[in-house]
Design brief:
The protein has ten helices and seven strands. It is of the alpha/beta class. InterPro entries: Erg6_SMT_methyltransf, GPPMT_Stmyces, Methyltransf_25, SAM-dependent_MTases_sf.
């Protein structure tokens, strides 16, 4: 006896998040992606080239845009570096895939199949069109699905990641679903902003970030508690806070700035907010 599939959007909050991303056409995402056709929905890592601020004023903003995109692609590369050995026969999952840039990078690097899921139908349609344009839609596919219950096969994935998408969901539910989908010995990686357990909940800057993105930033300790409860054992934890500050400093100088740059810089520099990479193995 078969049962009807569960709806993708199950709560008023999920519907609100989906509506936000369905309607989102922020130039800071789209114009950066236009540089080379890799559309990301995350931030950047590494020092920026100061020469982009020099030279002709007429082309200054274009130089900044290209540099911001280089830094966000560098962030995706750092995430992929931590997935461990991935072979062409393996399968990867991008949970909360946005417009799909990291999945396309993963396929280009490893030659494997990559799936992405998002509760934004417009993001999924956009990402699938990018995969088609690149001729990789036989291996890179995006699904309108809830990352808390994707409907994808059990134990089918060697690697799963969340790139700045964990703040939209309950971590215990999320990691239970990831543990179900990961093969034993498979690797989970997240890069995320998380609040300092001591000072983060009192930070006005962290509250402004939550409000801007309609999200709920988790304290750092919540990640490790939820992983321990679901058979995910951290093998690498990297504090990327200092490495992401240059991205925000450059973005604040761009015409693409959205107004959230100051809260991010304040939160990072006051220590109430951290940019963290966690890699964990499924046992």
């Amino acid at each position: 006896m078969s049962t009807a599939p569960a709806p993708v959007l199950r709560t008023a909050y999920q519907k609100a998040v989906a509506e936000y991303w369905n309607n989102e056409k922020d130039p800071v995402n789209l114009q950066l992606g236009d540089v080379d056709g890799l559309y990301h929905h995350h931030y950047g890592l590494g020092d920026y080239d100061p020469s982009v601020l020099e030279g002709p004023e007429a082309t200054r903003d274009a130089r900044i845009t290209e540099e911001l995109h280089r830094l966000e692609s560098a962030q995706a590369d750092v995430l992929l570096d931590h997935l461990g050995p991935i072979a062409p026969e393996h399968r990867l999952l991008d949970a909360g895939c946005g417009r799909g840039g990291t999945s396309i990078m993963a396929n280009a690097r490893f030659g494997c199949r990559a799936d992405g899921v998002s509760i934004s139908r417009s993001q999924v349609d956009f990402a699938n069109e990018q995969a088609r344009k690149r001729g990789v839609d036989d291996k890179v596919r995006y699904h309108f699905a809830n990352m808390l219950d994707t409907g994808l096969p059990t134990g089918a994935f060697q690697g799963i990641w969340n790139n700045e998408s964990t703040m939209y969901v309950d971590l215990f539910e999320l990691f239970a679903e990831h543990a179900r989908q990961l093969a034993f010995g498979g690797r989970y990686v997240t890069i995320t902003g998380c609040s300092n357990d001591v000072t983060g909940l009192r930070s006005k800057a962290v509250s402004r970030i939550d409000e801007h993105y309609t999200c709920n930033i988790h304290p750092r300790s919540a990640y490790f508690k939820a992983m321990a409860a679901n058979g995910l054992v951290p093998i690498n934890v990297v504090d990327l806070t200092a490495a992401t500050i240059p991205y925000w400093e450059l973005r604040a100088k761009s015409s693409l700035a959205t107004g959230v740059e100051e809260p991010f810089l304040t939160a990072y520099k006051e220590g109430s907010f951290h940019y963290l990479l966690i890699a964990a193995d499924r046992i």
